[in-house]
Amino acid sequence: MENLSASRLSFKKIFLTNDLIGSFCPLKKPSLDVSSVDKGEKKA
Amino acid sequence: MNVCKESVYGLLESLTDFTPKDIIRKVMFGKILFIDLTEKSWRVEDLPSYLFTYLIGGKGLGTYLLFNKNSPHVDPLSAQNNLIIALGPATDTGIWGSSRYGVYTKSPLTGLYAESYSGGNVAEPMSRTGYDAFVIYGSSYSPVFLEINEEEVFFRDASQIWGKDTYLAEDEIRRKVGRRDAGIIVIGPAGENLIRFASIVNNRWRCAGRSGTGSVLGSKKVKGIAFYGSKKRPVASEKKIKELKKSWLKKGMDMPSVRFFRSFGTCGLVSVINGVKAFPSYYWRSGELDGWESLSAESLHMNFKVRSKACRMCFLACARLTEVTHGKFEGLRIEGPEYETIYAIGGLCGIKKLEEIIYINDICDRLGMDTITAGNLVAFAIEASRLGKIKERIDYGQTEKVADLLFKIAKKEGIGEVLSYGIVHAAKEWDLEDMAIHVKGMEPGGYDPRYFFGMALAYATSDRGACHMRSTVFRAELSGLIPPQETENKAEVMIDYEDRHTLQDSLIICRFYRDLYTWNELSEIIEATLGLSFEKKDLQRIASHIRDAVRIYNLREGMDAQADTLPKRFFEEPLGPAGFTLKREDFEKMKRDYYRIRGWKENGEPVSIPPFLQKDFSDQ
């Protein structure tokens, strides 16, 4: 797991990459699938 | 403008069958959007206009919906718990302090009524969808984010941002929705992992922080919601609103409390509360933090790059956009830190450098967790460590260990898992129940009740636990309106604040306008928006009924009057260094006065059920 301690990393770098808590997610670069639009069904 | 000259409230109350009567004009949108995450479907329910005469909106509306739509004793993190986002008559009208939304649900932290509010600029896009409230229930099988507009509800895949921090989630959802005018709320890893004090975040740093509303969204696998639309909320008189705004701006800019917030932000309270020696420090052992000067507003403005920032439609501009310009945190930028965060992270955990508090504040915001509860829990773990109740070594002022513990909480690792369930669970697990500071499972704000007796009463009787926002009676105690340690008439003053705040939360208007919006101004806002003319006694009755409704909800969930108390330490441990004490008999007297004035029985039960709880008025 990526070490998140600011004492061992440049905080400026962490801040600018906006990925401080990236280790929570297995995917480093999120890219939402635009084809996955799911229109909800309207009920009466 | 259709204003009833006699007391409309009295007229409605005289109705016995609660048949809808067309006695007031159409107000609000009168539409509630229900979203079923399990079925990925939605429907709209209509509410009769006259109902808003009882509810006003916001808190009144949210409470009405929660009581009627939630089954008793529902598990807060189950699909059956409804999460309600409500708006008020003031929303998107341009009234000062109205850029706020309210969240209402059953709290996973306390098992009782939850409410939480947030500012920024998302309330207007929420309102422009054409709904007064959104009721979210069920649970999605996989992570989604919702896109809500005036025509449709979309359930979109969020699996690739599940696990990401709140900043990134907000950016990605905005990019996907492709509208700069969208209002977006999100949760962080804490909400996803069902941490009981997870928050809902918007505009990066604005949070519906308390009561664990973020974990309720997480339990439904909702990473975020985007709102946009073009509907205009109906009001009784736009002309009147413009006139009022103009006069209140002029009046407000001359008020000392406005000048205080504009100049210092909430962190200005650090010197004030330390000055009276009631600044909770070292897990509630001291009322003064040695070296507090380095955490003051003066220090913030001198040593950091700071500019003031406001929510939409606000001239107070209490927020500080702060950038660290030195040391290892150089480049870190947040909105804050607010007073409550400084007290909880700085005072309670003994961290005396503002840049380190900013660092911890940033982690909490990104993880999506309440800084007040986070600071209290970390300080509690420090005490547990000192007493040898846990193996882990952590002590006051150890910033890196505090940061590591917060990550462990979010990930439910080691002692982090114990703390993730909240103070009641941790205290029991570590056999430290007499040490733990909380009411009904939630920790207090930064005003020690051994000095502020009004806050002792407010913490003990608040519906969502030891909340400092339901009645900010400390304002009256600080200003000299009533001595802090006086018990005579304290309940009356506390209730006056509580009732005005109930109306503010129903309209929904920022708490910091409390000095500007007294009873008269609240009445003017209701007249200009809802077209109803109320006298002070009517407004007090409306507020009292809403307050009773919340009480009845909590009693239904199993709470009793014994829960209206304070931690043992507040009665038995004098607050150093000044030695302030709170006698149990003084507290019990204030509590008896409170019950009596509220018209409650000795066991804390309201004597009657508010009219709007007697029937579900919606069309389903």
Structure description:
Chain A is mainly alpha-helical. Chain A is 16% helix and 5% strand. Chain A has one helix at 11-17, and one strand at 41-42. The longest helix of chain A is centred in the first third of the chain and has 7 residues, at 11-17. Residues 1-36 of chain A have low confidence and may be disordered. Chain B is an alpha+beta fold and 620 residues long. Chain B folds into 3 domains: 24-227, Aldehyde Ferredoxin Oxidoreductase,  A, domain 1, CATH 3.60.9.10; 261-429, Aldehyde Ferredoxin Oxidoreductase Protein, subunit A, domain 2 (Orthogonal Bundle), CATH 1.10.569.10; 453-613, Aldehyde Ferredoxin Oxidoreductase Protein, subunit A, domain 3 (Orthogonal Bundle), CATH 1.10.599. Chain B contains 24 helices and 15 strands. Chain B has helices at residues 8-13, 52-55, 58-69, 123-127, 166-177, 189-192, 213-219, 238-253, 256-264, 269-275, 297-303, 339-347, 354-367, 371-386, 399-411, 415-420, 423-429, 453-461, 474-479, 490-507, 519-530, 536-556, 568-572, 584-598; strands at residues 31-36, 41-46, 83-86, 101-106, 113-118, 133-137, 144-148, 153-157, 183-186, 200-202, 206-208, 222-227, 305-309, 319-323, 333-335. In chain B, a hairpin with a 6-residue loop joins strand 4 (101-106) and strand 5 (113-118). Chain B starts with 7 loop residues before the first helix and ends in a 22-residue tail after the last helix. The A-B interface holds A 4-7, 11-12, 15-16, 18-22, 24-27, 30-34, 36-44 and B 35-36, 39-43, 144, 152-158, 160-165, 167-168, 171-172, 175-176, 188-189, 328-333, 359, 362-363, 366-367, 400, 403-404, 407, 410-411.
